[in-house]
Amino acid sequence: MRRRYFLFPMLIVLAVFFVGCGAGNFFRTSSDDAEPSLGRVGLFPAEAGGNAEAGSVVDSTLVEFMTANKLQVISPSALSAMLRSRDLQRPVDDYIRKLRILNFSDPELCKKIGSALEIDTFLLSKVEYWGYSKKEGDKDIAKIGIGIILVEAKTGRVLWRGVKYELREYLLLKPALADVARSLLKKMIDEMLTKR
Fold this sequence. Notes:
Layout: H1 2-20, E1 26-29, E2 40-43, H2 52-68, E3 72-74, H3 76-85, H4 89-102, H5 107-117, E4 121-135, E5 139-152, E6 158-170, H6 177-195
Parallel strand pairs: 2-3, 2-4
Antiparallel strand pairs: 1-6, 4-5, 5-6
Helix pairs in contact: 2-6, 4-5
């Protein structure tokens, strides 16, 4: 009996450890063979740790690239307004907390959110890194890291997940971080739409 009580906290610690390890590239697609249509895609505002520029660039770039791929998209600003008007912020926060901490996509919360917002899928994005840094050999680099999770609303199934970084070396002129982010997001969206 004691062994069972000991095992549960260990599983939680391991889940938090693996979810927190976002240093490299990680991609996962749905394991089912059937590829569901994305339908209406709700884009939640990017988690950017208070960096308004980063959040704004990620949000607008996702809308642009996904619309260019002929997807029916609800922008982060429109989705935020819907959350406020329909009193859904708490269920969304609960869902994201479970997903981030326990790596559990709660199907009941997903269904509730999807039904209330009238969306078929939703996309969560997170800015993992946004700034200038030094590389080995003392080279100056612009570095962007972004994570994306695409979820089917009616089932809570994670259709695609990725964390990717892009580095751009420079000598005198710093590359604009927004340009590096756009390049990275284009690659991620292309991969998400072809490999889910």
